[in-house]
Amino acid sequence: MKLLADFLAGGVPALARAITLVENGTERGREILEAIHSRTGRAWRIGVTGPPGAGKSTLVAALTEAAAGAGRSVGIVAVDPSSPFTGGALLGDRIRMHEAATHPGVFIRSMASRGELGGLAPTTQEVADLLDAAGKDPVILETVGAGQAEVEVAQAADTTLVVLSPESGDAVQTMKAGIMEIADIYVLNKADREGAPRLAIEIESMLDARPGEHAWRPPVLQTVANEGRGVPELLDAIDRHRAFLEGSGRLGERRRRRLVRRIVALVNAAITERLLSDRVRVERMVELVQKGEKSPRKAAGEILTELGS
Ligand SMILES: Nc1nc2c(ncn2[C@@H]2O[C@H](COP(=O)(O)OP(=O)(O)O)[C@@H](O)[C@H]2O)c(=O)[nH]1
Ligand SMILES: [Mg+2]
User: Fold this and answer.
1) How far is 160 from 180, CA to CA, in rounded Å?
2) Are residues 102 and 186 in the same domain?
3) d(C-alpha 100, C-alpha 105), whole Å
4) CA-CA 20 to 30 A from 159: which of 43, 104, 231, 245?
5) What is the side-by-side order of every strand in the sheet holding 107-111?
């Protein structure tokens, strides 16, 4: 395939095209994913999540500037309908993103979020695979924090940054269930605004109160993303987290868990798709359940068996 050859030769248009094919769920997209899979796993995947307006996109642009300035080739997947990467933002933000994007080697792709949850689109990890195989490192995944999306981005990342700002409100409120477990690094952005030190103290005390043993204590960093302040320290912290995961053998375990989730999710999606395309089978079972001939669980079990045969 010419496209594949161009992709492997490092062609930027070929990368963009391959991403589109994968996003659209095409057969050629799947072929490309098969062909490049053995080349994935080299990029460090950084997840960036947090409430809207905390400064995630600005921070991603600043991180990209710094990494690209150090000669690295950065890939960005922004899963956010309101992302400045796609437009829909203030002019100043767009300019900043475009500056980040003009570094040679930087590749930015925006993706629509899935449904009202703002969650990661199912193909996000595949797009990250393409960027990884194309030699991008790091690959940064930005998603707007909306419950499930935070957890999903953490599951797709090697290092997860939870970005908060003094405006995100009371830390205790922000730290809703689950988020304490996903942050590898806390970034308190907008440290130029009032309330950042207090937020830092709140998060530190929450970390103190974590039950159980923890080999990694997430650092709590303060940044002013639009001025690049605190960004070198953040890059250092990401490197330290990487060294921790690699040195302790946890990286392999983390990536294995990621694959388990990915494969289970793909199986789920495939089953759902088959069921939706075979409503008659489902309707038949529903009738039997309604007549009291089977329980819903029994019906589900039989459908599964039929699908597998
Ligand atoms: N004062 C201040 N404003 C910032 C900072 N970082 C980002 N902003 C501004 O906050 C707004 C939201 O930033 P954005 O990156 O789009 O947030 P996101 O929704 O989390 O991606 C924009 O107007 C940014 O220019 C910061 O450190 N300090
Ligand atoms: Mg954003």
Assistant:
1) 11
2) yes
3) 10
4) 104
5) 107-111, 75-79, 139-143, 45-49, 159-164, 185-188, 220-222
CA distance 255 to 46: 13
Q: Looking at the 3D structure of the chain, how many domains does it have?
A: 3
Give the three-state DSSP class for 155. helix
**E-strand stretches of the chain:** 45-49, 75-79, 107-111, 139-143, 159-164, 185-188, 220-222
> Does residue 234 line the site of ligand 1, with CB under 6 A?
no
Residue 109 in contact with ligand 1 by CB distance below 6 A: no
79 and 48 together in one domain: yes
Give the ligand 1 atom nearest the CA of 60: 15
- What residue owns the CA closest to ligand 1's atom 2? 190
For the stretch 73-132, pLDDT in tens is: 999 998 765 544 444 444 445 556 667 667 788 998 887 655 434 445 568 899 999 999
- 88/80 Cα distance (integer angstroms): 10
Say if ligand 1 is within 6 A of residue 164 CB.
no
Residue 253 lies in a domain: no
Tell if the pTM clears 0.90, that is, is over it.
Answer: no
Where in 165-219 does DSSP place strands (E)? 185-188
Sign of CA dihedral 56, 240, 137, 35: negative
* Shared domain check, 47 and 33: no
Distance of CA 94 to the CA centre of its chain: 21
Q: How far is the CA of 70 from the centre of ligand 2 (A)?
A: 24
